[in-house]
Amino acid sequence: xxxxxPHASAHIVDExxxxxxxxxxxxxxxxxxxxEAARLGEERIxxxxxxxxxxxxxxxxLMLEIDGExxxxxxxxxxxxxxxxxxxxxxxxxxxxxTLCTRMDYLAPFFQETAxxxxxxxxxxxxxxxxxxxxxxxxxxxxxxxxxxxxxxLGTGGNELGATTIMTTAFTAREEILKxxxxxxxxxxxxxxxxxxxVAQDIPPGALDTIREALPLIRDYIGQLSDLMLGNPIFxxxxxxxxxxxxxxxxxxxxxxxVLRATGLPYDVRKHTPYCGYETYDFxxxxxxxxxxxxxxxxxxxxxxxxxxxxxxxxxxxxxxGPGPVMVADxxxxxxxxxxxxSDGMGNSLDHIKEIMGTSMEALIHHFKLVTEGFRVPAGQAxxxxxxxxxxxxxxxxSDGGTRPYRAHFRDPSFNNLQAVxxxxxxxxxxxxxxxxxxxxxxxxxxxx
Amino acid sequence: MGIEEAPSGILLTSLEKFVGxxxxxxxxxxxxxxxxxxxxxxxxxxxxFDISRFGxxxxxxxxxxxxxxxVAGRVSQKMAPVVRQVYDQMSEPKWVLxxxxxxxxxxxxxxxxxxxxxxxxxxxxxxxPGCPPRPEMLLNAILALHEQVxxxxxxxxxxxxxxxxxEAALAATxxxxxxxxxx
Amino acid sequence: xSDANRPEKDAAAAAKAGAGAVGTPxxxxxxxxxxxxxxxxxxHVPTQExxxxxxxxxxxxxLDVVDVRTGMFxxxxxxxxxxxxxxxxxxxxxxxxxxxxxxxxxxxxxILAEVLDEAGVAFDxxxxxxxxxxxxxxxxxxxxxxxxVCRSLRDDQDLRFELGLGVSGVHYPGDVGRELHAVYHLxxxxxxxRLRLEVAVPDADPHIPxxxxxxxxxxxxxxxTFDFFGIVFDGHPGLARIEMPDxxxxxxxxxxYPLGGIPVEYKGAQVPPPDQRRAYN
Lengths: 449, 183, 281
What we know:
The complex is a heterotrimer.
Chain A: H1 28-40, E1 45-49, E2 61-67, E3 70-77, H2 85-89, H3 96-101, H4 109-124, H5 132-160, H6 164-185, E4 194-195, E5 198-199, H7 207-230, H8 233-239, H9 247-253, H10 258-261, H11 269-272, H12 293-321, H13 350-359, H14 361-372, E6 380-388, E7 391-399, E8 407-411, H15 413-417, H16 421-425, H17 430-440, H18 444-448
Antiparallel strand pairs in A: 1-2, 2-3, 4-5, 6-7, 7-8
Helix pairs in contact in A: 4-5, 5-6, 5-12, 5-17, 6-7, 7-12, 12-17, 13-14
Chain B: H1 15-25, E1 29-30, H2 36-45, E2 68-72, H3 80-89, E3 95-99, H4 100-105, E4 126-128, H5 135-150, H6 156-171
Parallel strand pairs in B: 1-2, 2-3, 3-4
Helix pairs in contact in B: 1-5, 2-5
Chain C: H1 11-18, H2 32-40, H3 48-51, E1 64-70, E2 88-93, H4 105-118, H5 123-126, E3 127-133, E4 136-141, H6 146-155, E5 163-171, E6 180-188, E7 193-201, E8 207-209, H7 218-229, E9 232-234, E10 264-266, E11 269-271
Parallel strand pairs in C: 4-7, 8-9
Antiparallel strand pairs in C: 1-2, 3-4, 5-6, 6-7, 10-11
Pfam family, one (chain B): Oxidored_q6
EC number (chain B): 7.1.1.-
Keywords (chain B): 4Fe-4S, Cell membrane, Iron, Iron-sulfur, Membrane, Metal-binding, NAD, Quinone, Translocase, Transport
């Protein structure tokens, strides 16, 4: 008798594949639920939703027990996007770690980069040496990124409800932000632009004007989006009072971000334990007391406007300060060459090449060692909290005095917030599960890392 | 025989060419987003890049109604059986586009968690490099795939082509045995 | 090329060239904070202290030596002729701090001692040591008291660490008897404070009482730590793997678990996985 497997295709018998480990993705929870359902023989239905499902916000898997249309039990299955980024970071230098951690939560790359770099700077003890201009550029990019991330949250949330226009409007608005990112970092996503000690390059000439021109456009698109959503009776009918999670539930489950602020607590890391000089910017933390999915949408829209306020202030500061250093002066950390695209289209600095190839072998050795081996970071550990679009992001780095992290751990807000799914969905309708998950806005790259 | 000589309004062609042309012009991709590339795939579907210019804006949620799987992102060991199941559920003929360097070769994540290339699990028709590839690159890859689809054989020709490809693959030297320069 | 060849270069350029050996103190480099951190991080611990039992005047371990490293490039058996093969370095984490800890740290530790005392547990029984490093407070908690410490930190009105932000693990294979560390991050919204708890357990007996009764949000974090490090959290409602498939062998983020890369083949040439390449450490 063949063994029953939950796969569509039977297991292939192949002698050549013997000894090769095979793993199944069905999960222990699922077997448990299915067995128990069979044993009890009750008329209850167990529904598996995902990991390939258009409404689960990525490769999230939901295991739902339903009684009619009512969800009686909801469990999450995660790990389908586990990439081992934390382990990979242990094999790369502190600077290269930026490239890896930016790919965790791919909708908010600058937040992981900044958290990582701030933690490395704490470990090095150079927090105060980071040039002001670099910090302002970080703030500028992070806040634009927050708008972009919230737009995706709103857009895909709308798409999951079947409202494609919300998605197209949100993505069109996000393209304006991506154009700015591309101008500054050269990439639309996964930038690797914030580096320990500062940022990779100064913003290019003319970028400030481009951003200033783009801001009214972005504001206009957000206005369109909020008109489309917030007054729409169908949208409100789907979201108001759905996915309720009160303050006690949030605090118990460690939930942060817009979900926590929708319960009335104005907890925002930018105000609570400021970093990157956020205490010097003028902005508000919007709160609501409705604690439902609709309140979360309203808060995200409000936060977009607040972020744009910070962006405007950052622009003023960049304009006032003028060009300047964007990397620490310490030559043991900063890369020796200020690279720029030359007339030959290559990103080389001809003066620097002339120096290291022609006059100074020590400079060549230093450059080679710094890039291949990296700089050493004194032993110890540091934790940096950053207000991510989805909540509180913690970067916990442990150094053993080497040129690579001994351990890097990112406490991603989506991972933590997903724990609330059962609390928010159980007792509700099946269709409301999608709304509740969209309100949490998990990004699976961040959840599974 | 040219078109000019035929009665007006009639186009003569082979069934194979006609089927290829129609398959190419109405491909339905399955919604199968994994990671960062999925966001770029969604961006390709929206207004600035507008994949509907190529008749592909309808992303099917059910793999049974789709004929193109865009593997957009890193495939983990845990996700691999799911990817295969989605592929198996799609009806023939079907094509696979491996989007991004993670899906193509594991990319920068050569570690315990990731399958080093989705071609370990499903046959891939076109590889698209980039991390993540720009939407324009995805459009270009899709157009290149369209050309492949347009010229794909039909009926008995297809059966023969599949058989020939399999025999050639069996006869070929495995990559692990190829020794040579990095060229 | 000596400095005599380019006397016109300024101090910054000289520092750039001279800093080839990273870690060598260079007086011309404006880097006071880093130098201080180097000293605090105790990279230059005499090796003979490792063999004996290093005890300070108060009976506490003065330096938390977690590993001893030899060589320069991390490669063994390759006939290293560079001369760096005989290099022996100790890896030490910041040691236990002495009072005053500074800032609000003293206050929190005092109140915690009081609360623990009321519960009938002596402070030194529950807390191994207090480390203040880089402006961050870490309490090393003995595992049998971790739930009590968490509850005290959460419930006392002067402490109020009401937000449990997560648990993760760190593996120190060289730290014999305390190989696995679980790190808890707590945050007090009321008082605007953050602190870190660390619990060390031996690899042979990797059990820690679960903190989920105090911080329900630690549920998934403890599952993740179990998944990656094999630390068993006793009393957890459902300690199953979360990221890896259920039937996965081993705990992949331990130091003795390889990165797990496979060679990348290209045109017949093989590129070894990152953990098998030559590395500087």
